[in-house]
Amino acid sequence: MTSVQTDSQREVAALLVEALNLDIPADSIDPQAPLYGEGLGLDSIDILEVALVVSQRYGFQLRSDDEDNVRIFTSLASLTEHITAHRVG
Predict the structure, then answer these.
(1) Burial level of 34, CB count in 10 A (0-12/13-18/19+)?
(2) Measured between alpha carbons, how far is 44 from 50 in angstroms, rounded to an integer?
(3) 3-state secondary structure 29-62
(4) Distance of CA 88 to the CA centre of its chain
(5) What is the DSSP track for 57-80?
(6) Which of 9, 10, 18, 57 is the most exposed place for a label (fewest CB within 10 A)?
(7) Are 75 and 34 in contact (CB under 8 A)?
(8) Which of 4, 77, 64 is closest to 34 using CA atoms?
(9) pLDDT (tens digit, 9 = 90+) per residue, 50-79?
(10) CB distance 34 to 79 below 8 Å
(11) Which among 28, 29, 18, 15 has a CA at the least distance from the CA of 76?
């Protein structure tokens, strides 16, 4: 059973689906499922694309050399939490 997405997670899930042209509904992304490998199955190129779109949409940079990236991109929930804490405006 998948967890229910919060409004913020729904927004970020929609952003992921749109940015990566994923062939799944945004609301089907489990907030706790891994983004890398199993789970959503993203690779490093996808993560770079997500970082670019997040910076354009939310007004802050996700840097490739950030040692927290492993934690930030663990799941939809962790990515959303990071965005919520750092978004501008």
Answers:
(1) middle
(2) 10
(3) CCCCCECECCCCCECHHHHHHHHHHHHHHHCCCC
(4) 17
(5) HHSS---TT-TTHHHHTSBHHHHH
(6) 18
(7) yes
(8) 77
(9) 999 999 999 999 888 889 999 999 999 999
(10) no
(11) 29
Q: State which amino acid sits at residue 41.
A: G
Q: What is the pTM of this model?
A: 0.90
∠ CA(64), CA(70), CA(75), 5° rounding? 115
Left, alpha or beta for 32 (phi > 0: left; psi -120 to 50: alpha)? Answer: alpha
Phi-psi category of residue 66: left, alpha or beta, with phi > 0 → left and psi -120 to 50 → alpha:
beta
Domain 7-86: give its CATH architecture: Orthogonal Bundle (1.10)
How does pLDDT run across 2-34, given as a tens digit for each residue? 578 999 999 999 999 999 999 999 999 999 999
